[in-house]
Structures are given as structure tokens and as C-alpha cells.
Amino acid sequence: MLRALTCVLNDDPERLRAALARYYREQRDLWLSAIGQAPAPGACPLDHDARFSAAEWREIPWFDYLRRSYASTARWIRDMLESIPTDEPTRRKLMFYARQYIDAISPSNFAFTNPEVIKLAHATQGESLRKGLENLSADTGKGRVSMTDESAFAPGRNLALTPGDVIYQNDLIQLLQYHPSTPTVHQRPLLIVPPFINKYYILDLQPTNSFVRHAVARGLTVFMVSWRNVNDAMGHLTWDDYITQGVVAAIDVVRRIQPRRKINALGFCVGGTLLASALAVLARRAQHPVHALTLLASMLDFGDPGDIRAYVDEAYVRHCEETLGQGGIVPGSRLAHAFASLRANDLVWRYVVNNYLKGQAPPAFDLLYWNSDSANLPGPLYAYYLRNMYLDNALRDPDRLTMCGVPVDLRRIGLPTYAMAAAHDHIVPWHTAYASALLLGERSTFVLAASGHIAGVISPPAPRRRSYRTGPMQAEPQTWMSTSTEHPGSWWEHWAGWILAHSGKQVRAPTRTGGAVFDPVEPAPGSYVTAQA
Questions:
Q1: Can you give the C-alpha Rg of the chain in angstroms?
Q2: Is a pLDDT exceeding 70 seen at residue 533?
């Protein structure tokens, strides 16, 4: 911060003096108001901030002063950084780390400056603080902040309940086929490739919010890749291995069950990146096994990956290549911490206050249980992904990358594509997902859902509390936004209409999973999904 201020002082001293003068004036007025020597201040920028929603923050002068002083300090820090004469990527990185600092120093995060914590400790005669220390001790042992009651859920008990079987497995994946729930099904099956960073059951949570169950109920024969939580012996696996042993192996299995028939495929998040890479490899080999493609919150063009770019620079990627490029394991918790920090107030400090300062147990929430159920990654895969996608943005350039021995060009995929993004996604910004859809050609359909990276995808039709936008493809995302139309309800129903139009005629539902080729290995959800990081 001092270096930043020195830079501003040398380049534009008047700007610095003006910002400092405003800050000192605001702090002086706050003190004079607090001691009754000046009129009460007006509206505060934090009046509608959930961290300061308790009445005590406004009604008790000391705490009102604390939140107003905090708001003034936060503004001053942002003003200083915005004044620095530097390039935009550096400015964005500075602003990101400044926001981390600003979020951390909030008076709501400390016991003696949070009136809610003090009031609760007094009411419970200190019991809330004792319980908070117990919670802190338990989380220290786990190495993470608890966001939900983790004892309330387990795959196979109350998550991942859609009936099905594991019909194939290798060292990297299990492939699930779900039982039909309708007397007839569409001819063309659907293969789902979830992200390998977390477990697949985000798409099959509970019966009321299961995307898989919804697809099966619409008459689709659904197959799901379940990635293995890799161990030390698998630390040598590469991006190419995930293509061949994961996506291509799964496609081959599904097509052996239903020979001479193309399939539909869906990828979510990095699963979509991997799926598109695999299809580009197959296209270069003149193989076209997929009829229609769905991408959910996926990036192919990494030109603007959002705040995560603050962590991914040349020095960090080179370090990963040197330490992990030839083998090793990236703990799933490392990635979980990084993604949580992108929304620190919602995914870190909120639980620090509730769990440790107030001594409360986090409520049971299936989405947050899944978010904490992270998976390990092999080092070579991780280093390759960071270098070629996030840092170099090489996938978007035709024939720049070689995968599985062939140059890849996304334009060769040439499929009808349904690209869904979420308006408030902090991991895959919607405009970046839009740029990714443009890479796949004019046959793309783009849909923008409400909410964020997970809640935007997991959007069951009932209750109808969300919305989505559709519109014809345009050259720029903002042009698309201005010409799009908002629809109440869930994008799931819109997607169902699109995918069914690409799924062929209806035939009698299969009577057994695996067809005549594969015998069931074990019932869904399978054993790979239950392995812990």
C-alpha cells in the first residue's frame, strides 16, 4: 500500500492530497458527530450491507461511528489504487488484494467491535464464545471453515439418489447409467461430463433439485462421468490422460451400448472445457460421435476469467510447473480456499463470525456441503490447465495447442451448442462464457440465468423464483444483453425443449443398464464419489 501511495505522490501529488484531505475531513466530521459537536451524518454506504444489518450498528453511536469510519477507510483505499498510473491487469490485481484487505478489517469480524457478538455473549454468559472456540478448534483440525453441517449429508444417503448403476470403470472414472423413469425414451442418449475439481453429484443433489432426475423424467437416457479422487499413485496424470481415459473412454462406452448412433454431450465448468477439447481432438481425427453439445458455465476463451486471474501470473504458474509438472498432488482444499476468497464476505467471513464469534453451528445446506467436498488433482494436469488456459488463453487460437498428438481447433467441432451462463458467476464471468460460445460458431444458443456459478446452474423449475434471458447471438455480449428477453422460471425447461429437439424419436425404454455389452459394477452413486480428499 505504501508503494502504491508513493507512486501516486510522484505522479500526481495534487490527486493524492485531495483524496487524503477528503478522508481526514470525513474522519473529523465523524468524531465531531460522535461527541455531539456536529450534525448527525447522513446515509452510510453500508446501510444495506448484511454485515451491518443489526439495529445496534445504527442506534449505538460508537458502533455507528465504527461502520462509518470503516466505509470511509475502504473508499480511501480504493481511491488511492484507482489513481495509480499502471496497466489495467496490474490495477485489477491491486484492487483484488485491496478488497481482500478491506473485507478482512471490517469491524464486524472482531468480537469487541461487533455489537451482535457482544450482546449474544452477555445474554449467554459467555457460552457463545466458548462454543465458538470449540468450533474454531474443530475447523482447525479440518483445515477449513465449515460452511454447513457436514454430518447432515452423504452421497447415497440423501444426495445422489437418482437410481442407476456404474456400468464401467477404469483407474480415472466410473461411468454411471441412470434407470429410465418413463416407459419410452429418446433414441439419442446424453453423456454428462462434470468438473473434476469437485464431485459429480452437484448435478444430482436431492430429488427436488436434481438436474439428472429432471433430465431422466423428460425421457432422456443419461450417463454421468464420476471422476476419481486421485491419490499419490495417480499424480502423474495429464490433461491428455483426462481426455483419453475420461471423456473419450466414456463416449466409446456409451456408443458401444448404442452402436451406430451419435450421442449428445454436456459439460459443466472445467468439464465443459475438457469436453470441448476432447471433441476438437476427435474432430481432427475425422471422428464426430456427438450430435449436439451443451456447455454449462464453461470457459473456452479465457481472455477475462474474472478475479481468479489475480492468483494466476507467470511466477505462480512457473512455480507450479517446476514443482508439479512432473508429478504430485494438488490438494482439493487449496482450490476450495482460492475460490472461496473470490467472495470472501459471503464464503469466509460470514462463517468466521457466525461459527467462531457467535458460537453458532452452520445450517445444513446441500450446495455448501458439495462445495466443501473437494477433490485432489494431479499436478501435471493442474500446471497444464493454468499455463495454457488461464495464462496463455491458447485454446481459443486454432491449432496453437496439441492434445493427444494432434493440433486442436474448436471451429472443427461444428455442433449445435447450448451455452448457459450465470449473471453473477464469480468463477466463469458470463461475458467470458459468451465469448466462448462465439468460438463454436453461429449454431450456438446462449442463455443467461440468474444467480451465481452454482445456484445459477442448479435452478429447478419449482419454486419459480428465478429467471433467465434468451436472444439471438450478437458480436458483443453487451449487445446481446440489450437485445435479449427475460423469462420467468428456470432455464432447465428451456434447455429441455432444446435438447429433446436434438434427441431423436422415442423408443421403448431399456430394461437394463449397460445394454448387452456391460454388466453393472455397483449401484449408483458408485464408490469413486465417496472417496475423500
A1: 26
A2: no
Measured CA to CA, the distance from residue 4 to residue 105 in angstroms comes to 19
Per-residue model confidence as pLDDT tens digits over 231-266: 999 999 999 999 999 999 999 999 999 887 899 999
Chain centroid to Cα 238, Å, comes to 22
CB 129 within 8 A of CB 111: yes
Phi-psi region of 328 (alpha: psi -120 to 50; beta: other; left: phi over 0): left
Cell digits of residue 71: 466505509
* Spatial separation of the C-alpha atoms in residues 478 and 426, rounded to whole Å: 18
Q: From CA 116, how far away is CA 446, in angstroms rounded?
A: 45
d(CA 251, CA 120): 56
pLDDT tens for 137-151 read 999 988 889 999 989
* 293/316 Cα distance (integer angstroms): 33
Q: Which of 484, 449, 454 is nearest to 468 (CA)?
A: 449
Selection from 297, 300, 253, 260 nearest residue 280 by Cα = 300
The predicted structure's pLDDT at residue 434? 97
Average pLDDT, the chain: 92
SS3 for 114-138 is CHHHHHHHHHCCCHHHHHHHHHHHH
Q: Which residues are catalytic?
A: 269
Spatial CA neighbour of 533 closest among 159, 227, 297: 227
Q: Three cell numbers at 101?
A: 484487505
Beta carbons within 8 Å of 394's beta carbon, 6+ residues apart? 388, 400, 401
Helix/strand/coil for 533: coil
Q: What is the DSSP letter of 361?
A: P
- Report the C-alpha gap between 532 and 331 in whole angstroms: 11
Identify the residue whose cell numbers are 452423504. Answer: 154
Burial class (CB in 10 A: 0-12, 13-18, 19+), 246: buried
Where are any strands of DSSP class E within 414-480?
A: 417-422, 444-449, 467-470
Angle between helices 2-11 and 61-82 (to 10 degrees): 60
Question: Beta strand 263-268 with 190-193: parallel, antiparallel or unpaired?
Answer: parallel
The secondary structure of residue 152, as a DSSP letter, is G
Angle, vertex CA 498, rays to CA 496 and CA 502, nearest 5: 110
Distance CA 163, CA 155 (A): 12
Q: How big is the chain, counted in residues?
A: 533
How many Å apart are CA 278 and CA 271, to the nearest integer?
A: 10
CB 323 within 8 A of CB 446: no
**Residues 6 or more apart whose Cβ sits within 8 Å of residue 95:** 78, 81, 82
Q: Look at the pTM and tell me if it is higher than 0.90.
A: yes
What is the SS3 assignment for 107? helix
pLDDT digits (tens, 9 = 90+) for 374-393: 899 999 999 999 999 999 99
For residues 79 and 174, the model is more confident at 174
Confidence of residue 36 (pLDDT cuts 50, 70, 90): confident
Cell matching residue 415: 455442433
Handedness of CA 139, 140, 143, 145 (dihedral sign): positive
Cell of 210: 436434481
